[in-house]
Amino acid sequence: xxxxxxxxxxxxxxxxxxxxxxxxxxxxxxxxxxxxxxxxxxxxxxxxxxxxxxxxxxxxxxxxxxxxxxxxxxxxxxxxxxxxxxxxxxxxxxxxxxxxxxxxxxxxxxxxxxxxxxxxxxxxxxxxxxxxxxxxxxxxxxxxxxxxxxxxxxxxxxxxxxxxxxxxxxxxxxxxxxxxxxxxxxxxxxxxxxxxxxxxxxxxxxxxxxxxxxxxxxxxxxxxxxxxxxxxxxxxxxxxxxxxxxxxxxxxxxxxxxxxxxxxxxxxxxxxxxxxxxxxxxxxxxxxxxxxxxxxxxxxxxxxxxxxxxxxxxxxxxxxxxxxxxxxxxxxxxxxxxxxxxxxxxxxxxxxxxxxxxxxxxxxxxxxxxxxxxxxxxxxxxxxxxxxxxxxxxxxxxxxxxxxxxxxxxxxxxxxxxxxxxxxxxxxxxxxxxxxxxxxxxxxxxxxxxxxxxxxxxxxxxxxxxxxxxxxxxxxxxxxxxxxxxxxxxxxxxxxxxxxx
Length: 501
Hints:
rod-shaped; disordered C terminus; alpha+beta; five-stranded antiparallel sheet; CATH 2.40.50.140
């Protein structure tokens, strides 16, 4: 440039001092940017310059000194392995002098950024604003993030859920909020979790406003406690399903009905926009059992149940999975008692008579003692009916047997008469004596040791006894006839035979 101004061949040195004073002043007046006043700096000074050359390991910056300042790539940023690729020649840049030399200054951009960041951090913290940075390293207990300065992101503030794989997050751009800053101690702590929770709160608010009273929606059981179940309705919205709204039947332990992870349908009973609470019901999505109560239980019928609770005024008795009735203390037993526990305890199985079903008030009145009375009456009637049927059956059988006996009566009498005539046939004139002797004959009783008597039935033994007596009588009669010297071959008179017969 100077050669063009003063002509070719003019002996000029490398510095302006070799130019004649009058010529130098003239040139500097025409080219103030090239021949301004040479400046000097000390460590810690922040200066503005312009990039004149970009190398792989450094950037050369014109800071109005005898020679360009050098910005090593290690001083470009806090990130590991920084590069010079993001710079362009002619770009303005602010740097800090970290080492001064006779011919060259060593510069740092990251220290300028670090110093400037404190003002931004203070403003962002005060206004609860977000800052954007890149995760550059994983350290014990968290991450290092570059937000224009070095900041620490604790592991507990990375996400709403615990994150164990920190290395996988390196290189990601994230939004954070300032938790703590102290410029004197060079302490800067940020949180990504706050940003996530804020986003969820926004989504949650939108989702909450979209849920209307009376609507039926699906949700997932995420927590079970003694008083109910918490149901996740999506987008961070959770509703409470009270234990009384789980089922139409009485539920003592919600864990007996549902488990964590179950997907269920629920009806929205109420929403509280101020407290952001939602009340749910599962039983409202199920059929109403009381609509069918008269089909299952009718007044005057007997039912089986289980005692669930006892009180001074009576017993609560569960009839099935949905219905429970009350037996008043006066309907438990005939005698007077002061408390139901005197006769029943929870778990007892009982038979009850349904006195009344009040569908409107959803109440069932029961009686234990009337059920016993009715059951006894029913058993008696059943017994009498069975006896009547049994009598009819036996009468029919005896009638058939008697009718069979009447048919063969005449023939039996004739057969029985023949041996009686032969056995009692005696000589004329001795019939009376023979009859007397027969009447006085002693018949020996059979011995118990006689095997024939033991083996044969009583009727058959008696028959044989009669036969033996008859044979002995006939033998004695023949002996007496021989002693009267009558001829046995003489025929008997006809009238005697007829008389004997």
